[in-house]
Amino acid sequence: MKKYIKPLLLGTITVLSLSCSDDFLEETPTQDVSVQDVSDTGKIYPGVLEGTLRGIYEVMFQTGTGGLVGDHEDYGQKGYDVMSDMLSGDLALAQNIYNRYSSLAQLISTNDFTFNDPNYMAWRYYYRIINSSNLVIKSLGGNDAVITDANREAMGQAKALRAYGYFYLTQLYIPEYTPTSRALPIYTEANSDAQAQSTTEEVYNLMVKDLEESIELLESYNREKEYQINKYVAKGLLAYVYASRGLGTDNTKARELAEEVISEGGFPLTSKERATGGFNNVAENPSWMWGVDITIDNGLDLISWWGQMDYYTFSYQSFGDKKQIDLGLYNSINDNDIRKTQFDSDAASGSYLMPINKFYHSAKKFRGQRNIESDYIYMRVDEMYLLSAEMAAKEGLEAEAKNRLKDLLSQRFDAAADYAYVDALTGKDLQDEIYLQTRIELWGEGKSFLALKRNKATLTRGGNHIYLTGESIPYNDDRLVFEIPQSEIQNNPFIN
User: Does residue 118 have a cis peptide bond before it, meaning omega lies within 30 degrees of 0?
Assistant: First the structure.
């Protein structure tokens, strides 16, 4: 029987948010639990602290955690994965009967701070993760606490979660790394007063510090569940942070971290069989570094990632809000590549270009899954192979880059001759090929937008987009950057 996350202090994390409203500044609101409450209770019953930490992980997949309860796009990290894939252009909104994601696909809402979806929603979600992480850190002794066996593992996870929150904020709210630009307030204390915007350099320095400490703290941690962050997930996050900054030795550091995950983590590449296996069960996919076992008890239904993306779930996908792979990207996939079969090639079918053989409920019965029990993936080791290849190519280590790319492609083709062309690639051609394979491999997993920004690319929307069809949009277009939400500007006196 599948087990599910049941936080001991769900109330602790489900109402935490950042603003400078009266409720936020109140020491112990009636609907909340304060830092002192949790710290004091933890001295009596340490399980409370563990429950609070587990509660943060639940925020990542529960609905309404972006503050828009009832909004069908507000369902945790996988909701922002859909949004970022849509921003990248690789995920095409091909039909829009129910008007979900319409303003985002048109790049209207991202250019208007009065739109709560996505601007307020993402801001509140990630700062909620940060504030809840700060709550745990404070209860364990604070940012500079003396580390003991009693607080080591919880502190390591909390600092990694805080960095995770800031990383996605940098990707969604900052067009590109500019050290002196100011965008994000930094909070390292739970329930603290509103702060001014810090420089991008300061935010990155905090992320690097948190993740480096997390990796050290989690060195001997053997997690019980895949939803928990261990040192390999922390290394993966830090690799992404370095790669997104791309200064000095950042690419080298990112590659080294990715290689450590590959060589030490024990995660095999996603096999050819699992590439079309549904991506629906964390227990059956040993390549998954980070994911969550969803069960009926978690209470997810239409408002979920599966409720948006799976043709075989009672979903928007099956009722007409069609989300497809970009036609140009699909056409770039070699016919002998197993990943081409992840998508429906029948132009006359109702599921044309949908990922019906990549993401699907195990029963594969049309609209058969109403209450969600299919799992969520956050990170898999294949990402590290591609990131290592990308960083190696950018640093002129072309032999190493080709080898890592071919490691992956060997699991996508039956014959080595089909990917032998990689050996002849050099320079920009090699980098472009790695970027293309990253887009193909990780389609629909929330990584395309990160790759778009790292590679400073421009993508042209294919003919199956109903909005902005054929338009070429560069990575730093203002429309691809979320706006600081109106409520934050109104309530934070330090933001103009």
Answer: yes
SS3 content of the chain, % helix, strand, coil (to 5): 50, 5, 45
Number of domains in the chain: 1
pTM above 0.85, yes or no: yes
DSSP class of residue 456?
Answer: T
Asked if residue 426 is part of any domain, the answer here is yes
Contact 237, 383 (CB under 8 A): no
What does each C-alpha distance from 47 to 9, 136, 160, 219, 227 come to in angstroms?
10, 12, 20, 22, 18
**Residue 334 domain-assigned?**
no
Please write the tens of the pLDDT for every residue from 246-272: 999 999 999 999 999 999 999 999 999
Number of H helices and E strands in the chain, helices first, is 19, 8
Nearest to 369 by CA among 431, 444, 300: 300
Contacts of 296 (CB under 8 A, 6+ apart): 371, 372, 373
The domain spanning residue 242 has which CATH number?
1.25.40.390
In a domain, 366, yes or no: no
Residues 202-228 have a mean pLDDT of 97
Q: Is the pLDDT of residue 37 over 70?
A: no
369 backbone dihedrals φ, ψ, rounded to 5°: -95, 110
Beta-carbon-side half-sphere exposure of residue 291 (alpha carbons within 13 Å): 22
**Using CA atoms, how far apart are residues 267 and 360, in angstroms rounded to an integer?**
23
Instruction: Report CA torsion sign: 35, 38, 44, 45.
Output: negative
- Answer for the pair 63, 307: CB distance below 8 angstroms, yes or no: no
Backbone phi and psi for residue 399, each to the nearest 5 degrees, phi listed first: -65, -45
- Whether 2 has a pLDDT exceeding 60, the answer reads no
Residue 256 resides in a domain: yes
52: pLDDT confidence band, cut at 50, 70 and 90?
confident
Residue numbers of the domain that contains 41 = 10-277+378-491
Model pLDDT for residues 332-349, shown as the tens digit of each residue: 999 999 999 999 999 999
Q: Tell whether the model's pLDDT for residue 151 goes beyond 60.
A: yes
